[in-house]
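Tokens as discussed.
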């Protein structure tokens, strides 16, 4: 297998749970191949450098192998190699999120109608 569609490869490499989500990320410009925004049908080949933005953060990877089938996570991780800078950046951002969650605890309850109106007024929308 020489080349694979971008959305299939992203799904097979387990960056997205479904091909539809992978395709949507391409359409929104969250996937770049060799510095160029990639469409879902763009071909992925061994040696390509991808920049992938998803819920887990921003990944910068080099494609080591291609696959059209989604397998176990251990197999999916052999399809790419993440750069050291990318890994370190994601680790730092995760640490920042963890510290922020500790300093700003979640509210005790959901906002009621009165609270929502005050929030809307505060944001300047009402």
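Sequence:
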């Amino acid at each position: 297998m020489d080349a694979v569609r971008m959305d299939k490869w992203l799904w097979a490499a387990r960056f997205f749970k479904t091909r539809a989500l992978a395709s949507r990320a391409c359409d929104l410009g969250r996937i770049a191949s060799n510095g160029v925004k990639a469409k879902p049908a763009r071909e992925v080949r061994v040696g390509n450098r991808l920049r992938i933005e998803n819920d887990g953060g921003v990944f910068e990877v080099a494609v080591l192998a291609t696959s059209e089938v989604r397998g176990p996570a251990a197999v999916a991780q052999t399809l790419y190699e993440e750069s050291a800078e990318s890994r370190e950046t994601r680790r730092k951002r995760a640490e920042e999120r963890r510290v922020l969650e500790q300093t700003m605890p979640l509210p005790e309850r959901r906002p009621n109608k009165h609270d929502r109106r005050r929030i809307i007024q505060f944001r300047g929308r009402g």
